[in-house]
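Lab notebook, bench 4. We co-purified these components, and the gel suggests they stay together. Before we commit to crystallization screens, I want a quick structural picture of the whole thing.
Request: model the full complex, all chains together.
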Amino acid sequence: QSVLTQPPSASGTPGQRVTISCSGISSEIGSNTVSWYQQLPGTAPKLLIYINNQRPSGVPDRFAGSKSGTSASLAISGLQSGDEADYYCAAWDDSVTGWVFGGGTKLTVL
Amino acid sequence: QVTLKESGPVLVKPTESLTLTCTVSGFSLSNVRMGVSWIRQPPGKALEWLAHIFSDDRKSYSTSLKSRLTVSKDTSKSQVILTMTNMDPVDTATYFCARSYGDYDYNYVDVWGKGTTVTVS
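Here is the predicted assembly.
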C-alpha cells in the first residue's frame, strides 16, 4: 500500500499563486478521482477539492484542482495568510480497496 | 446535517486492545453511496487510512495493519466500531472516522469527525 507523493513544503507571499503536486500509480490516481484536504492546526481535515477539480460550496475559486494520468495538482491563487495549513491529496486504491493519502504539504505564507 | 463523532478511551496500555466508536447522524449506514473509513494521524505526521466498511457490510483493511484491525457496524444505532489489538506506543495518534461518498466512477471522503486522541503508554 503506497503513499501518494507530495512535496513536504511549499511557500509563497500574499497574492502569489502556489501549486502542490501529488503523484501516484495506476491503481489509485490512474484509476480513480482525486480529492484534496486542508488541515488547519489542531483540526480535522476539510474537503477542499473532490472529483479532481470540483469545489464544495463555500470553498473559494482561488482553489483549483487538476489531474492528468497518475498525477494531480492543487493550485492556490491570491494566497492569503489564512491559507497556511497542511494540504493532503487522496485517492481510492483499487489494489487494497481503500484510501491512500499523500504525505502532506505544509504551506507557509511568507 | 451530516456529522460523525468518535468516542473511546484516551489512554491505553501497551498490548491492550483499543475499541473506538463512530456515531453518525444525517445519513444512513445502509445508503449504497456511502461508507465509513477510519483514518489516523500520529502527532506531527501524515494521515493514514486504516479500515473501511461499505454499505453492504463488506470490509477492507490497511495491508500493514490488517492482522490487528476489525471494523463492524450497527446500522440501527448508526455506529461504526473499530477494534485494534496489541496496541503499541507507535499507535499513539488522533483517530478520525470519516464518510466516503461515491458511485462506480467517483468517490471521496466528504465529512470527517473531529477525531479522538489516543495515547498508548
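Chain A is about 0% helix and 45% strand. Worth comparing against the SEC data before the next meeting. Chain A has a mean pLDDT of 96.
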